[in-house]
Design goal:
mainly alpha
């Protein structure tokens, strides 16, 4: 279980960064349309 926790701690910031990037990209596309 400890290994799983370490893995989650490593992966979570990467996943959040990807989500932020996708949201940012969507926002930029919306502004480009406007």
């Amino acid at each position: 279980m400890k290994d799983l926790g370490i893995l989650l701690k490593r992966c979570l910031p990467i996943v959040l960064r990807i989500i932020d990037f996708l949201r940012g990209g969507a926002c930029l596309q919306s502004f480009a349309i406007l």
